[in-house]
Design goal:
Strand order of the largest sheet: 1-3-4-5-6-9-10-12
Low-confidence stretches: 1-29, 35-40, 263-275
Helix content: under 10%
Number of strands: 12
Oligomer: single chain
Distance between the termini: 88 Å
Order of helices and strands: HEEEEEEEEEEEE
Strand content: over 45%
Radius of gyration: 36 Å
Shape: elongated
Mean pLDDT: 84
Length: about 280
C-alpha cells in the first residue's frame, strides 16, 4: 500500500513539473532588443556673412615697351578690407556648399622700375601709382573634418568670377622730367580659391567662422599709357600678371533648423547654449 501511494505522488509531482515548464521557459527568454531610431542625415539651408582683410600680390609687371634692360624694383598692393555674404546648403554633417558675393575695397598700388641709358638717351625710372578694387562671385564646396570640443575644422575650394577695376594710372619719370597717365580699366576674370578654417557652434543656429583663403584673381591691365605731352606711339598699358591674395576672414553662419550633430572627440555643447 505504501508503495502504491508513493508511486501516485511521484506521478502527480512529475505532471506538475511538466505542466509548468513552458511558463518557466517563457520567463527565462531574452527580452526583445529595444527599437533604435535610425540616425537621420542632416540637410538644411544656411545664410552666411563675413568680413576680412586682404594681403595681395602681383607676380609680374609688364609693358609693350619693356625689354631685358628694365628692372622692376617694386610692385606692392596695400591691404584692403572686404565683406560679403551668401546662401548655402549642408548636405549632411560632413559636406556643404554655398555661393557668395563679395565686395573687395580699394587697394593702393605703388610700383617702380628703372632702365639704363643708351646711345642718345639717358636712364630713367617710372614711379607708378593706381588703385584696384573687385567684385567677387564664387561657388564653394567644403568638408567639415571633425569636432573637437565643439570646434569644427574645415577645408574647401571655390570657383567663379571676379570683376577687377583699376583706377587712373599715374607714371612719373623723375630723371627724365616726364611720365604719363592712363584711363581706368575694368575686366572680368576667372577666379578660384582654396579655404581652411574652423567653425564654432555658438548656439543651435549660429556658428562663428574663422577662415583663411588663398585667392587667385588672374591678370588685368590699365588703360593705354599716354605721355604727359600727349604723344603715344604704341599701345602700351601696364599689365599685372597673376594677381593673388592671402585673405583672413571672420564670419557668422545661420542654419535654419539648427546645425548638424557630429561625432565628437570631446564635449560639443555650445559654449553659449545656456544663454
Amino acid at each position: 500500500m505504501t508503495r502504491v501511494v508513493a508511486a501516485v505522488l511521484g506521478l502527480a509531482f512529475a505532471g506538475t513539473v511538466f505542466s509548468l515548464s513552458p511558463v518557466k521557459a517563457a520567463d527565462l527568454a531574452l527580452p526583445a532588443a529595444p527599437y533604435i531610431e535610425p540616425v537621420q542625415e542632416f540637410g538644411g539651408w544656411y545664410l552666411r556673412g563675413h568680413i576680412g582683410m586682404s594681403n595681395q600680390r602681383v607676380r609680374k609687371l609688364d609693358n609693350a615697351l619693356f625689354d631685358e634692360t628694365v628692372t622692376v624694383h617694386k610692385k606692392d598692393f596695400d591691404e584692403a578690407v572686404f565683406f560679403g555674404g551668401g546662401v548655402g546648403y549642408a548636405v549632411n554633417r560632413w559636406v556643404r556648399f554655398d555661393v557668395t558675393g563679395e565686395y573687395r575695397g580699394k587697394s593702393k598700388f605703388t610700383g617702380l622700375d628703372s632702365y639704363p641709358g643708351g646711345f642718345g638717351f639717358g636712364g630713367g625710372t617710372n614711379d607708378y601709382t593706381t588703385n584696384k578694387r573687385e567684385w567677387l562671385f564664387l561657388a564653394n564646396a567644403y568638408v567639415d573634418v571633425g569636432n573637437w570640443h565643439g570646434f569644427k575644422p574645415y577645408v574647401g575650394a571655390g570657383l567663379g568670377f571676379a570683376q577687377i577695376k583699376l583706377g587712373h594710372l599715374l607714371d612719373v619719370n623723375v630723371p627724365q622730367n616726364g611720365g604719363g597717365w592712363a584711363e581706368k580699366h575694368s575686366e572680368w576674370n576667372l577666379a578660384w580659391a582654396l579655404y581652411a578654417g574652423i567653425g564654432y557652434q555658438l548656439t543651435e543656429n549660429w556658428t562663428l567662422d574663422l577662415g583663411y583663403r588663398y585667392l587667385h584673381l588672374g591678370d588685368t591691365r590699365t588703360g593705354d599709357i599716354i605721355a604727359f605731352d600727349g604723344t603715344n606711339n604704341s599701345y602700351n598699358p601696364l599689365e599685372f600678371k597673376d594677381i593673388s591674395s592671402h585673405d583672413f576672414m571672420v564670419g557668422l553662419r545661420y542654419s535654419f533648423g539648427g546645425a548638424p550633430s557630429m561625432p565628437s572627440f570631446g564635449s560639443d555643447e555650445p559654449l553659449f547654449a545656456k544663454f
